[in-house]
Amino acid sequence: MIDERIFRQYDIRGIWGKDLTAEVAELIGRALGTYAARMSGKKNLSLTVGRDVRLSSGPIAESLIRGMVSTGAGVIDIGECPTPVQYFSLYHLQADGGVMITGSHNPPEYNGFKMSIGRETIYGDAIQEIRRIIRGGSFAEGPGRTRRQPVTQDYAGYLSRDGADLSGLKVVLDAGNGTAGLVAPGIVEGLGAEVTRLFCEPDGNFPHHHPDPVIEKNLKSMIETVKDVNAHLGVAYDGDADRLGVVDSTGDVIWGDRLMIVFSRDILRTSPGAKIIGEVKCSQVMYDDIERNGGRAIMWKTGHSLIKKKMREEKALLAGEMSGHIFFADRYFGYDDAIYATLRLLEI
Asked: What is the pLDDT of residue 93?
C-alpha cells in the first residue's frame, strides 16, 4: 500500500518512515526503470542517481538503486551532491536519465525524488504514470548493474573554467548545512574572491536554520555577517542548491525578480532581442524592464519543470522565479543552478 498523495506535480515527496519507506523507494526505482526503458526504447539504459545530505537519503538511494537495477538499468551512483550536479551528470556522462533524491527546502523528515528522462525533468502525468506502473505491478526485468562515479569535481572544474576573475570581491556564502557547502565556496574562492563561510558543513539535521533562502528569518545570520565583514553581497542556498537568496552590501534582500533584472540587462547587452521568461508571481517592473532593454519578456507558469520546457520551446536565454530558481541557457545548459547563478552575479 502506497499513499498516492506522495506523487505530486513536479516530484515525488513524502515523510521518511511514514509514507516514504525503503520498500516504497524500491518500488519507485522499479517503476522508473520500467518507464525509462519504455520511453527511450533502449535495452541498455544509463541512469544517474544523486542524493542530498539528509539523514534518510543514503538508505533511500540504496533501495531506489536496487529497484532500478532489477529492471535491467545501468545505474551510475554519483553520491552526495547538489541537484545541479545531478543535472550536470546527464550531460557530462551522456546518461539516458536519472534521479535526484532530495527534500529540497522542506523540513528534515521529508525526502523525495526529482526525476529526468533524457535531459528533461518529468512532471504532471509522467509522474502519475510512475504511480500507475506501481499499481499495475508489471515491471521490466533484467540483469542491471551499478557503478560509483562522483562528478562533483568535474562540475566544479567546468564552472571554474568559464568563471570570471573574482579577485577583490568579498562574499558571504550560507549553505544552510545543505549540499552547496560541498562545492560552492571552493569554486568561488578558486576564482579569487574572499569568502566568509556560514554553515557550509553538510548536516542533514540542519541545526542552524531551515535551508529556505527566500524566508527572511533564515537570512538573519548572513545579513549580520555581510555587515560585519563589509562584504559586497551574501548568497544563501536551499538544501539542494538549485535556489538562491541574495542580500546586498547593506543587508537588503534582492528578491528573485530584481535578480532577473540584473541578469537580463547583462544578457541583453550582448544578445539583443533575447527571450526571457518569468513566472506569474514576478513583478510587472521586471517584465517592463526586460522590454525596455530590448528583450522579449514572456510570462509563464510557476514550476521548474514547466519553465525548463518552455525555455527549450522558446529558445529563451534566461528564466527565473520569485522562489530563487534561476535558469541560464546563455553560456549554460538551461537548468536551475544556484551555484552557477552566484558566479554570474559575482561576474556582473
From this structure: 98
